[in-house]
Amino acid sequence: MTLKTLLCAATALTLSAGFAQAQDKTLTISAYAFAQDEFSEILYKPFEAKCGCKVVVETGNSVERLAKMEANKDNPVIDMAVMSMADALAASRSGLTDKIDTSKLTNYGKLYDIAKDPNGDGMSVGYTFYATSIVYRTDKMKIESWADLLKDDIAPHIAFPNITTNQGAPALYMVGKALGSDSADLQVPIEAVGKKASEIVTFYVKSSQLVQLMQQEEIWAAPIGRFSWAPFTKLDLPLAWATPKEGQTGGMNVMVVTKGSKNRDLALEFMDYWLSTEVQTKLANALVDSPANSEVEVSEEVANNITYGAETAKTLTLLPSAVSLDNRDTWLAEWNAKVSQ
Q1: Secretion signal: which residues (predicted)?
Q2: 338 phi, psi to nearest 5 deg
Q3: What's the pLDDT tens digit per position in 256-288?
């Protein structure tokens, strides 16, 4: 065998090994189950082409995904995950996540301030947030304050989120602020809602049921997350998104890196790609996620259907994760005693 033949054979072997290595490079993520077709088209497939790797996605609700992370704490099976702020703090407290090296995120500086370190522990980065306010019939009422929901002529026509939902505690907190209480125990708003419990149409668990209730005119108002707003705009009814004087509340979903991940650098590369202006713009235009990247620009039509813009980001009053985690049991006990009795 000639030297040239040997060199060619060695080169081919090296290229083959490199290709196989790229194919074996797998990033496993844990994510919400919704809009996976859109995420695949906009995020997963383009990233796979960019990194020469495979993205494996595991889905499920937050409780299931946190439980799996805990069960595999000593030998992690996922590299990164997305979850709510409160769940991220719970994961951090359980030693399931690592501090994020934001120096490796080239798009970190583009994020709104509220998304840069939502829990103040350096363990998560926000990638999307949403406002929570009140959708209401403009021909039936005027909503200027969260406390208006409990007025005698309005309460019998509203749906209010159950305390067990993501909207429940934040909505109660804003009602409390309107009533002059800023306490994390939520006793004032829970008691106020409890006094009107027999009049309120329903304490909803799923926001999807509200569109039908509104269409059938069984309700005229309800606190909802902005991600639920789009279906209401399709109803042939005079509906508006309230801007209460106390402001809006909301929530944020964040990214975390699993402690002990064998693909930490690849996870950070994927997170950075997700936070890019290009990807965040595409997700916003698909009405999948509201952008945490401040450089994203969308049409007025799209902006009206998502949580968008610097001014909106500044006006959101987010319930701190520690407050949610440390008070959940107390809130539920109070709610069961005064509202669900």
Answers
A1: 1-22
A2: -110, -20
A3: 999 999 999 999 999 999 999 999 999 999 999
